[in-house]
Amino acid sequence: MTKNELTYIYVTWMDAHSGGETWTNIRDLDQDPVLVRTAGFLLPQSDGGKEGHITIFQSITPNDDVDHVLHIPTAMVKEFKCLQINLESKVVSIPLT
């Protein structure tokens, strides 16, 4: 993968979550869905992404080291948006001082 191939995505997905914090009567278990919104760079399966998942990472180095990797099972995905393709070629430098 090269920086010129980065694709920035936005995913809305249903999270697996705890139904209670302690011993809970079955009738009192949490029934509300947990909808999560995540944005980051797409890691295609051909570049190391996990099969059956949307793999997202936060940062990448010039040596292709990535961090904050998240594998979201595709069955849990409710919405997927490609926000920008080839992001690196469209980045604008902002002065820090």
Describe the structure.
The protein is mostly beta strands and 97 residues long. It has one domain: SH3 type barrels. The chain has no helices and seven strands. The strands form two sheets. It has a five-stranded antiparallel beta sheet with strand order 6-3-2-1-7, with no helix packed on it. A two-stranded antiparallel sheet has the order 4-5. The protein is elongated.
Features:
97 residues, mainly beta, SH3 type barrels, two-stranded antiparallel sheet, elongated
CATH names the topology as SH3 type barrels
CATH architecture title: Roll
SSE series: EEEEEEE
Number of helices: 0
Structural class: mainly beta
CATH C-level name: Mainly Beta
Based on Cα principal axes, name the global outline.
Answer: elongated
In short, what is this structure?
The chain is mostly beta strands. Helix content is 0%, strand content 39%.
What is the fold's blueprint, element by element?
Blueprint: E1 7-14, E2 35-42, E3 53-57, E4 59-60, E5 66-67, E6 70-73, E7 77-85
Antiparallel strand pairs: 1-2, 1-7, 2-3, 3-6, 4-5
